[in-house]
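Recap from last week: sequence in, structure out.
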Amino acid sequence: MDQSEEKTDKAVDIYRDTWVRFLGYANEVGEAFRALVPVSFVWGSYAVSTAYVTADAVDKGKKAAVVHGDNPGRTTRVAVAVVDTFVWQALASVIIPGFTINRVCAASLYLLGRTNKWPLPVRKWTTTAIGLSTIPFIITPIDRSVDFLLDSSLRKVYKETKKEE
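Predicted structure tokens:
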């Protein structure tokens, strides 16, 4: 079987394999625009990202419920699917990237103010451009770091729970 057939055989996860995935980055875009827009816009972008994270976690819980049917330990496995997805997504899609872009933008605005005489609107737009251009570079390192963090902590608890069943 070639790779194109494999891809069509797998079910599409709308939260990870479609444009919906980009909703998880809404808060990063909001943070990049923080210098230019009202703070309510930034908080709104966090609401969009949090809704995405919650929807993905609920979806993974529903899928786990179907897979485990009426088997013993079903409730635990569904809870693990929901918690693992929610924690991973919250850290990798909202908390860490939002903080990172916030700090990159704050530092760039500060440094631009200290190192040149550009008008404030130009510095703010430059800061926004820097924040937006940073997003693609932070995604993979953050995702891998969150995987490592969860594998080293929370997922060890899940494995112990599975052994007890």
